[in-house]
Amino acid sequence: MERAEKYNVGLLVLEIIIVIIGLLFLSPFYFVLVNSVKTLGEILVDAASMPLTYHWNNYVKVWDIIEFPKVMFNSFQITVISVAGIVLISSMTAYRLVRRPTLFNKILFNVFVASMIIPFQSVMLQLVRITSLLELRGNLLGIVVCYLGFGLALSVFLFHGFIKTVPLEIEEAAVVDGCTPYGVFFKIVFPLLRPIMATIIILNSLWIWNDYLLPVLVIGGNKELLTIPLAITRFFGQYTKQWDMALAGLTIGIAPIIVFFLALQKYIVEGITAGSVKG
User: Which of 25, 61, 196, 256 has minimal CB crowding within 10 Å?
Assistant: First the structure.
């Protein structure tokens, strides 16, 4: 009874506002899904209406035009290699910064944090020049190295906060038992980082899988390494825009990462809140 009395008009209004905001955020998915099974003419006439006839062959055409299995494999390998590297390097870096709080390490951590506020657009020109100079453009190594560079800062920051909650006594006990420094990290600390690790994997996977700007700068015209976002751009020419094909391609392109996100999204809040307070 007491709980029912607390439900008032203010709470009802708040719930309505939240539902409206939620629908606004979901509206792009509606337009993508609905227009992906329309003809181009129907889209141009009324993009918000339901299709008169469902043209499922849009997906079949897109599958063949962009060679979807090939570009999906490219996106998959770039995402997996980059995320694995980010997790490994950032976790080791954060562990060192936390357990060895020297003046240099404190300054280095502040540099990582400060780098997060630098807009990507401000370093685009320098990025192109450096990758060209080091012959990293147009190959898998180049795009992975770039993702490692741009992804480390946030990951180190998140790992840094979480590692502070790991009791130092556990590591000291492992050292007494004869564990090496690398053994302490990989056998004791690294398994304890799974909650925040899941968060970092999800956030970086979403970013890398859907990213367009960095691949277009680094991969360039290498058709053998085209990712899904780059492949979909072939439906947009100077004079024509094939929205029916592009939206169908976008739908099948984001489907795997949405499934991945829904399967693991509970770990995002769990990982961040677990590292938000030092134990």
Answer: 25
